[in-house]
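*Target chain*
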Amino acid sequence: MNKHVEKAKELRNATPMVHNCAQTIMEVYANDLGINKELANRLGCNFGGGMKCGSVCGAITSGLMVLGAKGIDSPAKVNHFIKTISNNHKGLVNCTDLLKENAKKGGQKKPHCDAMIQEVIELIDQMEEEND
């Protein structure tokens, strides 16, 4: 398992859990981006729960922030990132829709969100390797 995924699991399994999806990803990459974990958490705080209103998943939005901070910002690459995740989830990217689809299958929220975080981290790392 990669170091970013391990760190994310550590953050998400802390008791009490205080990191939303976006904060988790931002903190996982804080050192890589040259920011401290407090700033990473503040940057991600309003993106959890789909910008706190069920819109685009916080894992996806924070993934885009990390990619941008790493200089991966071409429209083709950003589109690839979004399309890859969307294709893995029946075209869904909004938090509310993803959670509803997960619930239909009997899934619970935390494992679903943890899986989204892992998926985004793995895609970021893959794209970064390809960009080198």
